[in-house]
Every structure is written in structure tokens, then in C-alpha cells.
Amino acid sequence: MEQRAHPVSYALTVTRAIKELASDAVSEGVLPESMAVTISKAATDAALSLGLFIVSKGTRLTHQTARAIESARVDMEALAELAGLVRTYKLTPKNAVHLALALSYTVEQAENRLRLAEDLLS
Q1: Out of 69-73, 86-90, 110-114, least confident range
Q2: Rounded to the nearest 10 degrees, how much is the dihedral formed by the CA atoms of 88, 3, 23, 31?
Q3: What is the pLDDT of residues 15-63, one digit of tens each?
Q4: For the domain that residue 112 is a member of, what is the CATH number?
Q5: What is 3-28 written as a DSSP string?
Q6: Among 2, 45, 67, 100, whose CB has the most other CB atoms within 10 angstroms?
Q7: Does residue 52 lie in a domain region?
Q8: Burial class (CB in 10 A: 0-12, 13-18, 19+), 100
Q9: Is 1 exposed, middle or buried (0-12, 13-18, 19+ CB in 10 A)?
Q10: Alpha-carbon distance 85 to 40, whole Å?
């Protein structure tokens, strides 16, 4: 994993990209495997980065900040798992839309938590 930005900023960038991809999937009624692989990899990388950040900062983070980052990390792992379903199962267009909606909801939760963490860290 190549790290260029602060883990929270990086994860926010990932969530914004996933939000766009999920929106496209809802509109088009399809979630291509290549898109799902990209989402899964990016979300996994962001989750790992957030986890390492929590460990490296330890007790220097406030409880609220650590909780927001940990919750976002779990959301990112969920996004990776949801996207991984595309690789495991052949989805009908209807199922692809349902999965894309689940991605959209989860990414919205992650984005809210990451914004909170970003505010608390500044």
C-alpha cells in the first residue's frame, strides 16, 4: 500500500470515489467486476491504513476520535466485503442495484465518521 496522505484524508478520498462508482452502478443497473475489484482494493487499503494509524497513535487520540476512526475502518472493511460479493456471485441487474445501494449507504456512514475524525484531529 502506497501512502501519500494522512490516513483519514486518504480514506475520505476513497469514500468519495466509491460514492461516485456506486452512484454510477445504481444509475446503470450494473456493477462490473472490474469496478468491484477496484472498490474492494481501495477500501481494504484505506481500512488497513486507518487501523495502522490507530495503533501508531494509541492513547494520544481522544476516545471520540479513536471511536470515529475505528468505526470508519469497520465501514471500509464492510465496503470491501460488499464489493467482493460481485466477484463471488453473478448478480442480476436488480441485485447489482441493491448491492450498489448498500455500498452507497455504507460509504455515506464512513464519510460522516471520517469527516468527524478529521475535524477532531485538526
Answers
A1: 86-90
A2: -20
A3: 999 999 888 888 888 888 888 899 999 999 999 999 999 999 988 999 9
A4: 1.20.120
A5: --S-HHHHHHHHHHHHHHHHHHHHHH
A6: 100
A7: yes
A8: buried
A9: exposed
A10: 10
